[in-house]
Amino acid sequence: AQKITQTQPGMFVQEKEAVTLDCTYDTSDPSYGLFWYKQPSSGEMIFLIYQGSYDQQNATEGRYSLNFQKARKSANLVISASQLGDSAMYFCAMREGRSSASKIIFGSGTRLSIRP
Amino acid sequence: NAGVTQTPKFQVLKTGQSMTLQCAQDMNHNSMYWYRQDPGMGLRLIYYSASEGTTDKGEVPNGYNVSRLNKREFSLRLESAAPSQTSVYFCASSSRGREEKLFFGSGTQLSVL
């Protein structure tokens, strides 16, 4: 069964520093996809980045990059030069399997707080 | 672009009442999902639908039913609401391919008294 684990319930980071949010996953399917979402206090779910299991390079989207270590089954989110607006909940998610019938499950999240 | 539209945004029910949460997407996506999010927690998958006419159980399906009415619409029904179903409910649809992404509705805040 697929599983997503985020071991950091909360983190405090100084503004302008880089931050890494941890995510490990467990699946026996060689085809899967990994997502990161941001949820600010307003409650909306904001897509950040996606990594497919067969992608050769780590995904990047602006200040966000995904440190994909397949052998270790980890998909950590790296935010460079953090900003006050980055304070939010961050969720890692996984789709297991290639089929469009695959479900997508989420980790428990990490609350990131940026200090000025 | 409307994206994923959920109604209602807020609802208060008494224990034992029933209601249906509506969800529609205009992006021609095949896959749609219903999640619940309890305070301070992650999203848990209730049901999902890979295509019109098909639905599958997720992580926490008990107490819920769903209907994939057509490609656009995916509704969630609580037949007999319980206080444990107090939560924020999110509907989502997903694109596939190189730019895979899950698009979310704005959520429904449901309180069961």
- Rg estimate of chain B, integer Å: 13 Å
Helical content band of chain B: under 10%
Tell me about the biggest sheet of chain A? 6 strands, mixed
DSSP E strands of chain B, number: 11
Taking all residues together, what is the mean pLDDT of chain A?
93
User: H/E element string of chain A?
Assistant: EEEEEEEEEEEE
In terms of quaternary structure, what is this? heterodimer
The N- and C-terminal alpha carbons of chain A lie at a distance of 41 Å
How would you sum up this structure, described in words?
The complex is a heterodimer of chains A (116) and B (113). Chain A has 116 residues and is an all-beta fold. Chain A has strands at 3-5, 10-14, 19-21, 24-26, 32-39, 46-52, 60-61, 64-69, 74-79, 88-96, 104-106, 110-115. Chain A is 0% helix and 53% strand. In chain B, 0% of the residues lie in helices and 51% in strands. Chain B is built from no helices and eleven strands. In chain B, the strands form two sheets. In chain B, strands 2, 4, 5, 6, 9, 10 and 11 form a seven-stranded mixed β-sheet that branches. In chain B, strand 4 (31-37) and strand 5 (43-49) form a beta hairpin. Chain B is globular. The N and C termini of chain B lie far apart (36 Å). Chain A binds chain B through residues 6, 33, 35, 37, 43-45, 47, 50, 52, 91, 93, 95, 99-109, and chain B through 30-31, 33, 35, 41-45, 48, 50-51, 54, 56, 58-59, 88, 90, 92, 94, 96, 98-104, 106-107.
Please describe the structure with a list of short key phrases separated by commas or semicolons.
heterodimer, A: 116 residues, mainly beta, 6-stranded mixed beta sheet, 4-stranded antiparallel beta sheet, 12 strands, globular, B: 113 residues, 7-stranded mixed beta sheet, 51% strand
Blueprint of the fold:
The complex is a heterodimer of chains A (116) and B (113).
Chain A lengths: L2 E3 L4 E5 L4 E3 L2 E3 L5 E8 L6 E7 L7 E2 L2 E6 L4 E6 L8 E9 L7 E3 L3 E6 L1
Parallel strand pairs in A: 2-12
Antiparallel strand pairs in A: 1-4, 3-9, 5-6, 5-10, 7-8, 8-9, 10-11, 10-12
Chain B lengths: L3 E4 L2 E4 L5 E7 L5 E7 L5 E7 L6 E2 L7 E4 L5 E5 L8 E9 L5 E4 L3 E5 L1
Parallel strand pairs in B: 2-11
Antiparallel strand pairs in B: 1-3, 3-8, 4-5, 4-9, 5-6, 7-8, 9-10, 9-11
